[in-house]
Amino acid sequence: MRVLEMAAPKIAHAAYQGPNVLKDIFYGISMGLAAGFLWKIHHWNVQRKTKEFYEMLDRGEISVVVEDE
């Protein structure tokens, strides 16, 4: 029991020091860049699919006209 009493004063408690503006700005910029990168990847995928569609259309592999049966 005496060991616990001696160790107790050495425990440091975290004190709230208020918002850290630079850290918040860094987090905001990081999250914005990550979201922008994910959006750009999505845009590249849509652009690739559109390009493939028009290439197939030009080669005659597909058609947008419904054939009468």
UniProtKB/TrEMBL annotation:
It is found in: Mitochondrion inner membrane. Transmembrane segments: none annotated. Its main location: mitochondrion. It comes from the Eukaryota. The keyword Membrane applies. InterPro entries: COX5C. Coiled coil: none annotated. The keyword Ribonucleoprotein does not apply. Keywords: Membrane, Mitochondrion, Mitochondrion inner membrane, Transmembrane, Transmembrane helix. Belongs to the cytochrome c oxidase subunit 5C family. This protein is one of the nuclear-coded polypeptide chains of cytochrome c oxidase, the terminal oxidase in mitochondrial electron transport. This is Probable cytochrome c oxidase subunit 5C-1 isoform X2. It comes from Ziziphus jujuba (Chinese jujube). The lineage of its organism: Eukaryota, Viridiplantae, Streptophyta, Embryophyta, Tracheophyta. The gene is LOC107415492.
